[in-house]
Amino acid sequence: MAAVQRADGGIPWYRGHHLDPWDHVEAAMALDSAGAHERAAAAYRWLANRQNPDGSWYAAYADDGPGRPTDRGRESNFCAYPAVGVLHHYLATGDDAFRRGMWPHVRAAVEYVLTLQRPGGELGWRRDADGTASDGALLTGCSSAYQALRCALALAEAQRDPQPEWELAVGRLGHALRDHPERFLDKSHYSMDWYYPVLAGVVRGPAATARLAGRWDDFVVPGLGAHCVLPNRWVTGGESAELALALWVAGQPRRAAEVLGWLGHLRAPDGLYWTGYVYADDTVWPRERTTWTAGSVLLAAAALTGHRPTRAVFDPTALPRGLDRDPARDCCPA
Q: What is the CA radius of gyration of the chain?
């Protein structure tokens, strides 16, 4: 992963491909989990230097010198996720100057994301280049944003800059995710919509266990990993590693380690991981080794082996809840 990172700190999917803010942050977090803190800091400087005046980032940037935008849409999930990475880096390094310097960027990004929150609590997934907001909301993207908003609240607490509106937004978003699936586009044939509410800490306790068990046979190929999308006979490293992390979040570390261990068949000689494997044809496909696949493997391994900063940002009991009902206690912290 370090070999793929550019001199300016940007981390594309692979050299010659584009960079997107979400996967860039995941790769930076993975670098921190491996002790490469200066490289991770450079990745966050890259983000800070390219933030738009409204607090957003574009959906994709070219792997070239200037990092020119190739998709000027601005996605709510992509713009929320830097809060997770900033908190993770701060917890990994204790660097107060970094936290203070990144706080204005996190605050502006969250304010942009919340312009896309709809009356039902869900977040519209994207604002197009012309400023038009999408009508649709994505369950996976909103789950990820839920985790990110809680990380942003933790950073607000560290900054002593209370954000009560964010607390309300977290509660509304969590309620929509748990109780109103009809408010989201139907992507139930994607495995991410199955496990992401658990991974992001939206669904917890017995409900998380039941959710993962409910579609296990649909999405999991024992010994190989998790499907990306049904009915394709294709398992992918990123989804499989994220499923392992979701199992850890749900309190199933042994099963998480088993799933993560299956991914050895995707590991390439250079240490990166192939994106996926079409088991119907016994072939690796596509022929690419992405930083986000390697990043998800490293983060799952970090959680399973006790890396405290990684555990802190994924442990649903360790982050501020905002004004959010705790389903395990059926009460509201307000």
A: 18
